[in-house]
Design goal:
By secondary structure, this protein is α/β, with parallel strands linked by helices. It has six helices and four strands. A four-stranded parallel beta sheet has the order 1-2-3-4, sandwiched between helices. The chain is globular, with a radius of gyration of 15 Å.
């Protein structure tokens, strides 16, 4: 229940992603923001991270009106992004090594575009959870896939540049600024997960 530390490592790890996305969307009418959680944990049924993400979306809607939103979240942030994807503003979700517990709801992902990227060496969150959510999201009416990053870890430090490039391409593609990366575009067209990224 404590507030996150100012030196929160997970938040620090997302800063390069924020910079990469800002650079890729420069010159377009795109706003990039970060959600600050009030509490460190998910906290069971309270789902505090999802509550904070939903509050941020509601505030954005008040400030900017009906805008298209792509959510990007890592680990617990990925779970929060998936949980609030049913919000009217959300068009897509990019989950980076998301925490996807067994049986996580997916109905809110219908009519959304969802890409979950997971390292095959992740020992903190389960890559199979991402694949399961993507499969069930497709069955619920989402365009969804799980991309397995060979050699990738939970902190996204191994092959960091590739994580940044892929996340940036996914956000730009889901916003319609650029084409989606080829393997993801084909996966959406074929309704399956792409082959692991070498």
């Amino acid at each position: 229940m404590a507030p996150p530390s100012r030196w929160n490592l997970a938040a620090a790890r997302m800063r390069p992603f924020t910079r990469a996305i800002l650079g890729a969307t420069e010159g377009h009418d795109v706003l990039v923001g970060r959600v600050r959680y009030r509490h460190q944990g998910w906290n069971g049924e309270r789902a505090d991270a999802a509550v904070d993400a939903r509050r941020a979306l509601d505030e954005l809607e008040l400030l900017a009106g009906s805008v298209r939103v792509v959510l990007v979240g890592h680990s617990m942030g990925g779970r929060a992004a998936l949980a609030v994807a049913g919000h009217d503003l959300v068009r897509g979700v990019v989950g980076l090594a998301p925490w996807c517990p067994a049986g996580e709801p997916v109905q809110q992902l219908a009519d959304r575009r969802v890409v979950l990227v997971h390292g095959d060496r992740d020992r903190t969150t389960d890559p199979l959870g991402s694949r399961d959510v993507a499969r069930r999201a497709r069955a619920a009416g989402a365009e969804a896939c799980a991309v397995l990053m060979s050699g990738g870890d939970h902190a996204m430090l191994r092959r960091a540049g590739e994580w940044h490039t892929l996340a940036t391409g996914l956000v730009s593609g889901l916003l319609g600024l650029t084409p989606l990366p080829g393997p993801v575009r084909r996966a959406f067209e074929e309704g399956r997960d792409p082959a692991p990224s070498d």
